[in-house]
Amino acid sequence: MDATLLLGIGIAVVISIALFVRNILFGQDGVITKKRRLETGELEVSVRTSGNEYVLDDLMTLMKNYSLSGRHDEAIASARQALSIAELEFGKSDDAIIPILEAYADVMQRAKRNVEARNLKERIKAIREKKPYDDRSFKRSRR
């Protein structure tokens, strides 16, 4: 057999194996997908039923799971809830809310809501530069 033919067959086998493994891990009933689904369910219950100090961590993880699963509306709702809690706890212009704003902006970008993501990034920049927070300046949006 020709060496290029063998090489082509070898590459095809490697690609087939990689796609098979990817489907096992990430497919509709894949291992990682099932784990994320279980974790998401547990987090939803935890967020709804508890008022513990870890609720922000749970909301952040829930937001990430929703976003990675393509459930953008739920991810945005979790981000808004996390931001509301953080703003009540720390204030609207405290450095402690920056990680939540960054995650929120990431969720907005994944949802193809780039204007809102850019506004969140402007708000992060204003907080870092210690500029006063003006709620109206960040409400520009296409919605």
Describe this structure in words.
- There is one protein chain.
- The protein is an all-alpha fold and 143 residues long.
- It has one domain: Serine Threonine Protein Phosphatase 5, Tetratricopeptide repeat.
- Helices cover 73% and strands 0% of the residues.
- It has six helices and no strands.
- The chain is elongated and about 75 Å long.
- Residues 136-143 have low confidence and may be disordered.
Task: Outline the secondary-structure elements.
Blueprint: H1 3-26, H2 31-49, H3 55-68, H4 72-90, H5 98-110, H6 114-128
Short description:
By secondary structure, this protein is an all-alpha fold. The chain is 73% helix and 0% strand.
Question: Per CATH, which architecture?
Answer: Alpha Horseshoe
β-strand percent reads under 5%
- Report mean pLDDT, rounded to a whole number: 80
Assembly type of the shown chains? single chain
